[in-house]
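step=encode ok
step=design start
structure_in=
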């Protein structure tokens, strides 16, 4: 195993495979879920896996009393981390996938951000809780997507590859849908069960449309996996106040413009990935709710984030912050330059 105690403000680490899938390992159920998903992706994409274990050395600070300094022996901590990594490495080797293991001293989130500079994909498990408190994912699964140098996939609590996937009721209704050359429009639909995205990579696109980095990452992922790509857009037609009452013509224009952006994205994708099956759906509703409901059945959900950098970058974009704690499938976050 390699060791590197300098994890702050250093160049990208020297690694065996710069295209490896990076997996944070700490022995928890969440990290085992992340490893299980990463093994499947490594097989599908022909990649190796780099396991990273990090730990901090406890310290005692005394401001007003005179005490003798007692050096802290980290031998037991390191041995525990080493044992966890060896167990994970054995699981990867059993799947006949090349594996590299790294132990580093430092904050786990900071270590993984540094390691992401020499990886094609980072994978971590989420320890988020349900309910309102579930907006807090945990330090690593919120900080890494905000700062990672490569796309990051967060594996939700309780996810299993063979788990039940049932569309749930949603307040966001599809208003236009493209599949097999047909566009269906039904503006009279009420609250309905969510669409079934089983077997597909789903990507949410915003005003960037065909220029969205998330769109192209999702297309590459779907092409490599050999699965369809479903592009999702959202518009809001509800009138929230009397300041402006759009006419029927205005509403039609908004929907046409939004649909046009999705059509442009589909056409651009087909030029670069002619063999990729691309579908799109335009929803009327709230973006976060549409994406969370898509995660009920999608194989992978891909979202972009315009979160701020710096220490404040525990802040992802508002949609990412709203989606990640509640997503039911592995969710890839792609950083988007502001």
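sequence_out=
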């Amino acid at each position: 195993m390699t060791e590197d105690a300098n994890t702050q403000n250093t160049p990208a680490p020297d690694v065996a495979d710069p295209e490896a899938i990076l997996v944070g390992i700490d022995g928890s159920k969440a990290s085992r879920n992340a490893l299980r998903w990463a093994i499947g992706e490594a097989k599908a994409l022909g990649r190796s896996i780099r396991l990273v274990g990090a730990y901090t050395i406890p310290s005692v600070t005394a401001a007003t009393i005179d005490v003798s300094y007692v050096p802290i022996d980290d031998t037991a901590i390191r041995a525990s981390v080493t044992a966890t990594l060896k167990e994970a490495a054995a699981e990867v080797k059993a799947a006949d996938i090349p594996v590299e293991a790294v132990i580093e001293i430092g904050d786990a989130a900071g270590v993984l951000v540094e390691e992401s500079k020499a990886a094609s994909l980072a994978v971590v498990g989420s320890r988020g809780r349900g309910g309102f408190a579930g907006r807090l994912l945990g330090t690593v699964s919120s900080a890494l997507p905000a700062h990672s140098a490569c796309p990051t996939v967060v594996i939700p609590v309780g996810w299993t590859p063979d788990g039940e996937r049932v569309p749930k009721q949603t307040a966001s209704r599809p208003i236009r849908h493209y599949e097999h050359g047909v566009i269906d429009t039904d503006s009279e639909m009420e609250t309905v069960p969510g669409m079934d995205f089983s077997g597909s990579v789903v990507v949410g696109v915003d005003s960037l449309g065909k220029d969205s980095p998330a769109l192209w990452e999702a297309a590459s992922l779907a092409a490599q996996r050999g699965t369809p790509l479903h592009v999702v857009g959202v518009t809001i037609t509800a009138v929230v106040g009397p300041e402006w009452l759009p006419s029927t013509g205005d509403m039609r224009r908004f929907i046409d413009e939004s649909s046009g952006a999705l059509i442009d994205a589909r056409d651009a994708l087909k030029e670069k990935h002619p063999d990729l099956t691309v579908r799109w759906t335009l929803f009327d509703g709230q973006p976060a709710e549409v994406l969370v409901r898509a995660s009920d059945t999608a194989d992978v959900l891909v979202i972009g984030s315009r979160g701020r950098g710096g220490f404040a970058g525990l802040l992802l974009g508002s949609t990412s912050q709203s989606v990640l704690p509640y997503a039911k499938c592995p969710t890839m976050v792609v950083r988007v330059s502001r």
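step=design ok
step=annotate ok -> The chain has two domains: 21-58+73-155, 169-334.
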